[in-house]
């Protein structure tokens, strides 16, 4: 009966995972301006691969609603949102999310990501995928991570394959991208595969 007095969920402030050149952490309220600026600057680069942008997609109020949704998802365990920052100067580079997290007999989730145009093709997302795999498999103890990308988005397909994801097939009209239902290539990686790849990387670094 006292649920109306329950505090609104908040995103964790101390969660951080470091990669080689970047780190990921949950978004903060004061990230809005940098986020909105990077997204608008990268509009032509991002629009072909994302759900249709609305007129107020990057407004302050929309961003705060987004943070509220992220916090609810994090508290419930259904989703986890991170921003990607350069370790050199802490500039925002992009974002990476885990959504549709299912436990029980599935132990799976779905990956989403974007990178600002100034940081594309610089290894940012490859590094970030390493961080998110660590969080997903070693912190959440999950079994299977799934991802999807447009077949014509060759850069996105390559980054998934470089990160160890296997292509599993094609899903017709899988997601609505920029207002159109689009076919998507489906990818996945299992915890055993991620662990083997990490061990192989460690071995190479010791040689």
Assess the beta-strand content as a share of residues: 25-35%
Low-confidence stretches: none
Number of helices: 6
| Shape label | globular
Biggest pleated-sheet summary: 8 strands, mixed
Number of strands: 8
Helix content: 25-40%
Strand order within the widest sheet?
A: 1-2-3-4-5-6-8-7
Describe this structure in words.
By secondary structure, the chain is α+β, with helices and mostly antiparallel strands. Helix content is 35%, strand content 29%. The protein is built from six helices and eight strands. The chain has helices spanning 32-41, 43-46, 60-76, 124-139, 154-162, 191-206; strands spanning 17-18, 22-25, 80-86, 92-102, 108-115, 144-149, 166-177, 180-190. The protein has an eight-stranded mixed sheet, sandwiched between helices. The chain is globular, with a radius of gyration of 17 Å. The protein starts with 16 loop residues before the first strand and ends with a helix. The relative contact order is 0.14.
